[in-house]
């Protein structure tokens, strides 16, 4: 979700428990590096440095077998990083640091060498033009193997009872049934974080829909709300995306919006408030710092080879989000069960 989400999700202040894997063993480095790490943690008041402004003390460390990975807020991105980190550490002997950065600042951090790789990007053409084509400080890392799509969804049980709800032209007919205390007199369109870059407000306005966009606050809060609605068999309309493990537990059907066209996408890039078409389907990409891509050795080679399916990603994501395994535990289980997949990624 260009991820116009996803979702584009962005990240607020973090706690150490929010991040995929946060082991920070003290390596044989100078005292200054250790003090720097402690200072960063203290400065943020939480368990991890805010990479929007600060660099990991281990990023771009000359001559050291270290890798710093940017991890996005949604659980699918956490799954990518968890598995990559596990294999880099256990199979290739690297020390891996992971940091969370908002989607756009992550490109700045990557360009400056403050992180080495972004494992899942939903499309940022402006940043690609600036950093990949013009400055050449970022290199393409190849396809992740997963195709992303953002859309509006209703629960399957509601779509089966009211088949015409899956056409946006009929949404106003169901606005009364989709009202909530938060949406007032209008139907509710449930979104995730208010920091996500979405087209939803523009779509509601331009398609003349009697709906109010209501932000849950985060992906986790949105999932909680969706599961509550589903448990009570209540109708809902939500901004959602795939790949996403929640489809396994709450089957949903996409509402068909006006078809996406390149012309609509270009118009939306110039004027986001003018968007009146569906979200595009986006092959998700990896990006590496250009110096790391050239000098990162086996780690860079491994990350470029890392490619899996949405089923694999969802498997790890569900272990994290639904089964409550730590990302490290989820990655370890997946690695043990799928050697036929990941061994092809090793240099």
The strand count comes to 9
Oligomer: single chain
Low-pLDDT regions: 1-55
State mean pLDDT (0 to 100 scale).
84
- Order of helical and strand elements: HEHEHEHEHEHEHEEHEHHHHH
Q: Treating each run of at least 4 consecutive H or I residues as one helix, how many helices? A: 13
| Main sheet makeup | 9 strands, mixed
Q: How would you describe the shape?
A: globular
- Give the class from helix and strand content and strand pairing: alpha/beta
- Give the percentage of residues in beta strands: 15-25%
- Measured between the Cα atoms of the first and last residue, the distance is 30 Å
For the CA atoms, what is the radius of gyration?
Answer: 21 Å
Helix content: 25-40%
What features would you describe in this structure?
With 347 residues, this protein is an alpha/beta fold. It has helices at residues 31-44, 75-90, 103-111, 125-134, 156-161, 200-206, 219-231, 262-270, 290-295, 297-305, 310-321, 327-337, 339-342, and strands at residues 66-71, 95-100, 117-121, 138-155, 187-191, 211-215, 237-242, 252-255, 281-289. Strands 1, 2, 3, 4, 5, 6, 7, 8 and 9 form a nine-stranded mixed β-sheet that branches. The longest helix has 16 residues, at 75-90. The chain is globular and about 60 Å long. The two termini are 30 Å apart. Mean pLDDT is 84; it is low at 1-55.
């Amino acid at each position: 979700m260009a991820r116009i989400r996803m979702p584009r999700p962005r990240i607020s202040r973090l706690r150490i428990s929010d991040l995929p894997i946060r082991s920070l063993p003290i390596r044989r480095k100078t005292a200054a590096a250790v003090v720097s790490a402690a200072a960063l943690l203290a400065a943020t008041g939480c368990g991890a440095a805010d990479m929007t402004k600060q660099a990991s003390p281990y990023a771009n460390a000359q001559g050291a077998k270290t890798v710093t990975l940017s991890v996005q807020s949604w659980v699918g991105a956490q799954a990518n990083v968890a598995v990559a980190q596990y294999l880099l550490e256990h199979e290739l002997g690297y020390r891996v640091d992971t940091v969370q950065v908002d989607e756009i600042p992550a490109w700045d951090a990557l360009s400056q060498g403050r992180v080495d790789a972004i494992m899942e990007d939903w499309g940022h053409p402006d940043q690609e033009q600036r950093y990949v084509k013009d400055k050449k400080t970022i290199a393409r890392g190849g396809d992740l193997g997963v195709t992303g799509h953002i859309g509006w969804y209703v629960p399957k049980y509601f779509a089966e009872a009211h088949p015409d709800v899956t056409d946006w032209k009929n949404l106003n007919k169901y606005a009364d049934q989709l009202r909530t205390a938060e949406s007032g007199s209008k139907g509710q369109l449930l979104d995730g974080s208010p920091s996500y870059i979405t087209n939803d407000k523009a779509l509601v306005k331009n398609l003349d829909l009697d709906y109010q966009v209501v932000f849950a606050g985060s992906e986790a809060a949105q999932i909680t709300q969706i599961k509550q609605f589903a448990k009570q068999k209540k109708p809902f309309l939500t901004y959602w995306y795939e790949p996403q493990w929640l489809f396994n537990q709450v089957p949903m059907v996409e509402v068909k919006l006006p078809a996406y066209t390149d012309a609509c996408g270009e118009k939306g890039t110039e004027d986001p408030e003018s968007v009146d078409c569906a979200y595009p389907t986006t092959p998700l990409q990896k990006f590496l710092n250009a110096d790391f891509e050239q000098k990162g050795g086996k780690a860079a080679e491994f990350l470029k080879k890392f490619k899996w399916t949405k089923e694999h990603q969802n498997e790890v994501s569900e272990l994290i989000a639904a089964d409550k395994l730590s990302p490290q535990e989820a990655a370890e289980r997946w690695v043990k069960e799928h050697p036929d997949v990941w061994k092809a990624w090793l240099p």
